[in-house]
Amino acid sequence: MENRSYVGDETWNADTLPVGGLAGNQPHHHHNHHHKHHTTVDLKAPQSTSDEKPPLREKWGRNIEFLLSCVALSVGFGNVWRFPYTAFKNGGGAFVIPYLIVLFIIGRPIYYLEMVLGQFSNRGCVKVYDLAPAMRGIGVGQTVAIFTVITYYASVLAVTLRYLVASFNPELPWAKCDPTWPDCVDSSRLGSIALGPNVTQPKTSADLYFRKTVMHAADSLDDGLGYPDWRLALCLVASWICIVGILIKGIKSSGKVSYFLAIFPYIIIAVLLVRSLTLEGAWTGIKYFFEPQWDKLLTIEVWYEAVTQCFFSLTICFGGLIVYSSFNDFSNNIYRHALIITSLDTVTSLVAGCVVFGVIGHLAHVTGQTDISKVVQSGPALTFITYPDTIAKFDFLPQFFSVLFFFMLFLLGIGTLIGIVTSVITAIHDQRPDIARWKIVISVGLAGFCIGLVYITPGGLIILELLDYYGATLVTITLAVFELLTFAWIYGVNRVCKDIEFMLGIKTGLFWRVCWGIVTPITVLFILLVSLVQYKPQNVPLGYNALGWCLYAFAVLQLPCWAVYAILQKQGLVWWDRCKAVLRPMADWGPEDPTKRSEYGTFIEEYKQQSVMDRTGNLVEKVRRKLFK
């Protein structure tokens, strides 16, 4: 598969390139060279003999398993853990409005686009760039970014498991203050406290339990990272055992688990929402969450955070969605699935926000703090402070509800991690099918565990935010620009729409075409450029910022490196023809089923014949054809 040549015939344009073994009636000689490298492909002849035919890709057991797995992938840590602290950091209502706008013009279009190309090609996040092999480095870079996310998501999962185990105590350990904690107020307290003019603002026992007992959190990295907490290390081992155990048997086993992973968490979220809204002072926090701060809407930082949160919330531009879609049946109605999942994801984020901000409003009431933004410290720890604080105030069996909540959070984390780890495994397995899948799963698990130990040190939370910014957020937005450029302009919006028409039998509307070709890529590019111009180093020692930039460079430079490699692999052409050839689909691009691929070749040939008369025109006319033809 990897050594099939690109179709470089000069008579073809990239957006009408024949694929799948049918090239129309162009005369040429038949050559079948069975060399190890650089096979010359005869477009009329069969692509391979029965001995060479690759096995069909593993499929979901049922379509509902794909839908629920996508729900578990997209509706997870990004919504319940990351969204609330990102919204709190960016002013509550000042963040929600940009977030909803970004979901509509960026999140949903990219979600549908990635679903389409994954299902159409039955390829993973690297192999999908067979549509333009020079751009394969995008998929490799996204794999680096998603592995970075995997390492710290797993550590968050370990903290969740630590709380789950602690919930079985006769009394919740964070409900009462430890005698050694100064300026502490019990999280189980329901009333408010009066503060004198010179009294230090107290912190809740849930806050101090997380920072002092669970994480042993350091205020800075000046004294180094410290050593991992052994309890969290054991929880990290258990987390990775769960992930590896589910994935080691393949996609069908994770599909069966999705029924529970996707549905059960909503029951617990509903219970917590009701309890949060009934706390005294909760509506002050809810108002802060939804009330717009119009002055902040003009700051680029809020929009940048909205875009990145959109990527994390929907898990787009990471490769996981393309991988999940690649295990679909060819004719699955992903248009409907894309609308359902993106809508459900938005609702879940807002509900999780209401739970957290309701608790923050209550904490403001309890501690006597009038400024909501100063009630708790924003950051990754926010979820492990607000939710436990809510549960500590339950009058009836708080331990029971604590077990339910952290079990739910654990399931959400497992659901998300299964999807993104599958992305990495598939990227490796697509390139090296000779390596047994179980060996790849175990290797990824071991690597993820070893790196994850960094995040459960006293300085781990600071490192988490550092690598989240450089290795995940910044990399993802940068590569998202090139992903959209590749799909919308190199491959072509018109070609994507023809693929949808062939696969689903539906015409693509104007909204999708305009978003894919113009609105979405320009918006993401603008956010990226402004964020780079206004860059401020993270508040850590200089060496850590340098490490972050090295990680960013390693991921992003995959693009030019793989492009050069693709050009050098093209033999027998002058360099300019090589460059053009590697921006065209490979000879075997299209559906994996040979019959479907032959039908697709005929379909595209007919489209080419209809379009061949429209090759002339000015730039505006060419753009119009690329988007709307």
TrEMBL record:
Entry membrane topology: Multi-pass membrane protein
Pfam families from the UniProt entry: SNF
Localization annotation: Membrane
GO molecular function, one term: amino acid:sodium symporter activity
Keyword Disulfide bond: yes
Keyword Membrane recorded: yes
Disulfide bonds: 177-184
NCBIfam families: Na_transp
Family statement drawn from the similarity comment of this UniProt entry: Belongs to the sodium:neurotransmitter symporter (SNF) (TC 2.A.22) family.
Name used for this protein in its record: Transporter
Organism: Anopheles merus
